[in-house]
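Exercise 7.
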Amino acid sequence: MILQGKRCIIHGAAGAIGSAVARAFSREGAQLFLAGRTQEKLDALVLELRAEGGIAHAARVDALDEESVRQHAHAVAEQAGGIDVMLNAVGFSHVQGVPFAELSYSDFQLPVQAYTRTIFLTAQAAARYMAPQKSGVILTLSTPGARLSGVGFLGNGTSSAAVEAMSRILAGELGRQGIRVLCIRSDAIPEAVPVSHARAAFEGMAQKMGVSVEEFLHARAEGATLLGRLPTLAQLSAFAAFAASDGAGAMTGAIANLTCGSLQD
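Solution. The predicted structure, written as tokens, is:
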């Protein structure tokens, strides 16, 4: 098991991506500290993981609140003796599909402000406990919007680009302290969209095209990716487990392309 004994915090663990990664980490032997705002979902996930032999704990944490994030990191470090991995899988509902001329500044800046704030707070809180042990992994998530140009996703694209820039710069800032920082750039994950914040975002784009969200995703898979399909939760979570493991120990400052070829590096 490639994460045996690793002490891992997952912010946004109640969401589709966070919970999928939690299951993958648990299968690989990680000790999990699941954080989010929906206690009932977190508790249900903990029971599921424990029933399968995993070690998991849950706490209600607001990933936009500095004190809440710091207190949680401190509690984890006290209980587990340190922090080895932190994944931020927090998502925020935001507007897409609105042309620039009609876009309000508040709708534009919401994802930019929210994503940069949560990455800053959660990474800083975890790094404080990773640095003394001279090891640790910080994982972030972005979207193809970071590199694309077009109509209707200015906030998404700007926030994704900011997350990728923060991840690259943090890798340089923290590297000599033994901390690796990696960003996972995934295209839309069809199985996650119906149960995540992404549905609201894609509804705006789909309405603009006069199709359903499902039809929009199918068209994107067919027309925008080299593989003719979109990524799955299993593929993203398996990569996240590898990225967090010692097997990826030479990898930092990278933006991992899990877009099925909607972007080519």
